[in-house]
Amino acid sequence: MRLTTKGLLLIAIPAVFELALLSALVKAQVDTTQEERWAAHSEDVLRQTSAILEPVLLESVRLRGAVLSNKADVTTPVALWMDIDRRIDQLNDLVADNPAQVERTEQIRQSVQAYRQWSDRVQDLLRSGRRHDVVERFSELASIDVLDRFRAQVAAFQNEERLLDVQRSTEAEAARERQQVLVLVAGLGSLLFVALAVWLFTRGVRGRLALLSDNAGRLASNEPLAPVDSGSDEVARLDQTLHETSRRLLEAERIQARFQSDLARRANELAAINETLRQQTQENEMFIYSVSHDLRAPLVNLQGFSKELIHACDDLRAAVRQSSLTPARRQHIERLVDEDIGEALHYLQTAVLRASHIIDALLRLSRVGRVEYRRQQVRVRDILQRVIDAMQVSIRSKRARVVVHDLPSVWGDPTALEQVFANLVGNAINYLDPAREGRVEIGTTPSPPGVHSLRIFYVRDNGLGIPAVAIPRLFNAFQRLHGNVATGEGIGLALVRRVVERHGGRVWAESTEGAGTTFYLSLPEAELRAPRKEPELLTAAASGFSVL
Question: Between residues 408 and 36, which one has the greater pLDDT?
Fold first, then answer.
């Protein structure tokens, strides 16, 4: 039998007993409350009766005093009789469940009305000066006194209510005694049944629970467990689970040891790979530096020789002019010097300058990974202000409008981030479409769900756009689009990608050819945010620059 079934059986027997006692206790509580309510009800009735009797008696005393002192201005307020009549109505409501008391209430009302009529007549006689008639009425009152009849009826009503009060108080006390007895029986019975249930339950499972506890301690100490306990209840299944857990822990330890061995081996391999990569990176940087240094010498020679050739051409022109050659021959030589040789020298100098720029770009690209960043809280708004101020000439020449929205602070190197935004904003301005009014917008977009440590910025333009086939290689070095529109070596976006990745973010682009391009970059959020300011709008009419 399962432990839950045993427990339910042991719980069900005392629960039935407890429910029976609880129902009896609830009934006793209801009876006690009802009797106490009736006792309180009798007290309310007696208080209401006194509230009716006392004003009438006070009025009779006042009237007798007025008769004795022969006061003609005595008058009983109508409000007094209205209040007494209202109290009689309330008394009638209180005893509505007792027909005899209801009848006495009506008799009290009639007595009060009779006394009111007699009192009003006496007051009328006093006001008219007929004191002799007043005395006769008081003489008549001796034989049939309406006030005494009123008092007698009130007394009879109160006596009956006191009898009811005594009876109800007795019943309430008896109900309280029954309730106390039931509470005592319920408490003792509950203790008895609980003790019996605990004894029956622990007698069969105490030893097995001790064995189970011992096995749990052995499992915690990584010791062999005792044999599995026989049975089919939860204790036996739990003991079997402990044995299964012990077996799996041993297997897990073996697997962990194997994993640790593999991890150590992989760590050594990774360290070797990192060392190899470091050496290769160092060799690459040295190779780039060496190649750049070695290439500069022939470039300098080429540039020097080209300048000497230019001077030689100048001397040759002067010699030709002073020679005795025929004009046709002289013009042919001058044309060769000015056109063929001059054009060749121009292309040679352009190629030398281009090669020099490529060498400088290689050196800058190789140094990006070696620069040590000074990370701090960076206000992107201030960076963009400096970038846009430095590009005012280009903005005016393109007749562009630059819109900067409210930007949060980030965590990074201010110089490197200024270079990033300078490249992106510079590209956006350089590749605007001259056929329409240019617009460059810088702002932020919400981060994807679950990403709270990065802020995503965008630089959007309505320029020439980028073909879809060129997007995958956009951030590679020396990749240039629209080369006839703007000059450059094609490493700006490669530098942007390396700087952003070193900051722990990434950069990507979305573009439609002929409609414009949007560059997105994610940067780590500042650890200490700058106080948020309300957006402001600054407009420069000459440059078309605005900050939102």
Answer: 408
